[in-house]
Structure formats: structure tokens, C-alpha cells
Amino acid sequence: MNIILLGPPGAGKGTQARRLVEERGMVQLSTGDMLRDARTSGTEMGKKVAAVMDAGELVTDEIVIGLIEEKIREGNPAGYIFDGFPRTLAQADALAELLSRNGAQLEAVIEMQVDDKALVERITGRFTCGNCGEVYHDQTKPTKKEGVCDVCGSTDLRRRADDNEESLRTRLMEYYKKTSPLIGYYYAKGDLKRVDGMAAPDEVADQIAKAMM
Ligand code: AP5
Question: Whole-prediction pTM value?
């Protein structure tokens, strides 16, 4: 089963994608994570996208479509969770073509709805484990022992360079201008399901499970 988690920055896409990976063995394809990996590995592409990401703008369609194409070509029977992709209509068209070329299709597009005020609180309080990727929050999900990841015990806890109010304003603008038109696009195709992203993570997970039935 192939699904898209669609929603603004901080909607909880990554949090829910990690649960689906654990519970269903699906593969998470996060273009944000792929781009951050490219940055840290110091590739030419990584250098090119770093400033764009820090400012909260979108990286070019050509780059992100290339990243996804490479992954889809590897194939995966349990299905993909597209997290943060597609973000433009051109990316959505490219995804449809890539899937059909590989004999696959999209089963659901799940829109996670969250108020802007909550997004600011979530993003400015977020930190993640640099070793296993577990996602935390200063207030709502702190580590049990300060400075130590609950899951893997690593002390490499990080905050993203774009997780500040200024970049978030641009990220939200980009979302409403370029990504939210995808809601109408997938609604018209009959693929769109909505979940209340303001609910607690377990409740959101239940709603996603129902949307995938
Ligand atoms: P990306 O990494 O995709 O970031 P994003 O879309 O801004 O989404 P986030 O990762 O910030 O949020 P999330 O929805 O995953 O929330 P999370 O689960 O972490 O993209 C980063 C940048 O890369 C872009 O700005 C762009 O430059 C570039 N890029 C990436 N893809 C691209 C593409 N396709 N095209 C062009 N450019 C691209 O949760 C957030 C916080 O909230 C956490 O602390 C969590 O604990 C908490 N939380 C989660 N769920 C709940 C809940 N239900 N209740 C309360 N708190 C919750």
C-alpha cells in the first residue's frame, strides 16, 4: 500500500510515518530527511540546497523528484509512506508517473489538519535523536532522562536549523501557496482522506489506520 501524508510543517507527518514503519513494515520516504542527509554528506547537491532549506523555501522539483525516483526504482513490497512529498503539482504528476511506470499506485492521500498556532508551538519545541531519529518535544514529549534518547540511549539530540519562527513563517507560506493546492487535486481524484492532526498521537494513528482501510 502506498500513501501520502500531507500536511503543513509540524503536522505530525514524521511522527506518524515512524509508527507505520514500525507497525506495518512500510518504508518511509521523507524528502526532508533525504535532503538533510545530502547536506551532512557534503555532496554538491547538499551544498546547493542548504541555504534554501534553512530559509524555509522549497528545493527545486527536479532535485526532489530525482531523489524519489531513485528510491522507487529499488522497489518495496510493503509499500511507501511519502512524507513531505509531493509538495507541488509538478511533483504530484511526477509521482503518479513514477508509480505507474513501476506497476504501482497510490492507495490514499491523508491530509493532517492542524491549527497554525499549534504548528508554531510544535516546531519551536521539537528536537530529534541524531542516531535513531526519534522525535521529541520540550513540553509534550521530553526525554525521560534529560539529554538522553529514550529509544537508543544516544546523547546526540539535535534541533533543526529551520525550526525557528522566522523560517517557519516562510515554510507555512510555501505550504499554503504551493502545497495546499494538492488537497483539491487529490480530492478531485477521489484519493483524499482527512484526519484531525490536533488529536493526541495515538488517536491520530487510529484515524490514519481507518483511512487506510
Ligand atoms: P521536511 O523535513 O519535510 O519538513 P516539514 O514538512 O516542514 O515537516 P516537519 O518535519 O517539520 O514536520 P512533521 O509534520 O514531520 O512533524 P513531526 O512529526 O516532526 O522539509 C524540510 C525542508 O526540506 C523544506 O522546508 C524544504 O526546504 C525541503 N523539502 C523537503 N521536501 C521537499 C519537497 N518535496 N520539495 C521541495 N522541498 C522540499 O512533529 C513536530 C513536533 O510536534 C514534534 O515535536 C512532535 O513530537 C510533535 N507532535 C507530533 N504529533 C503531535 C500530536 N498529535 N500532538 C502534539 N504534538 C505532536
Answer: 0.96
